[in-house]
Amino acid sequence: MNIFVLITNRLLCEGLCELLRKEEGFQTFCYHDGNKIFFLKPDIILIDINNLNQKLFSQYPNSKIILIDIGIHQDDIISALLSYKIYGVISIHTDLKLFKKALKVVHEGQIWISNSTLKEFLHNKGLISKSGKIKSLTFREREIIEYVSQGYNNKKIAMKLSLSEQTIKAHLNRIYKKFNVSNRSQLIAFSMNNHKINNQSHTCII
Description:
Helix 6 (139-149) packs across helix 8 (165-179). Residues 126-134 and 195-206 have low confidence and may be disordered. By secondary structure, the protein is α/β, with parallel strands linked by helices. It is elongated and about 50 Å long. The chain has helices spanning 10-21, 54-59, 74-83, 96-107, 115-123, 139-149, 154-161, 165-179, 184-192, and strands at 2-6, 27-30, 44-47, 64-69, 86-91, 112-113, 204-205.
């Protein structure tokens, strides 16, 4: 797994790189160590909020971005989740075993987010309906949400359900409206906190 660490604090950046380099299966490159990373195709980019920008997502469209929480205000984390396609948020205080698990989960296409951040995201940012209850879902909508939670795109979901991509898109648009969300990441976050949608969620939280 190729990992690019893009953290402004040099000591923290190099320390995290060195720690991961000692672990089997990780090839890590640090922003500060002089490596020319432009030719690389990192699987995962670990980044602090100071370096988070849309240009990075354009430069590495196939890389999965994980925000490293080095003491970020909760509102800033929520804002980042709403503004960018982030696959996870990991605290710098996370122990190594759990940190490695988070990296593997994200590498497999799932989402990793702390439970406290998730609760803030759901309850304070208007993703729960005003009544506090989940709106009704059809069996087909539940199927689609489950596939979305597993990282499937519209084309793959259409193949799984023997439907057209346009039909899947229409279903998703209705689902988004039901839960007041606007994209896949928000839908996954919502489904993670609601067993009525998916009792066997494949999305991981800590």
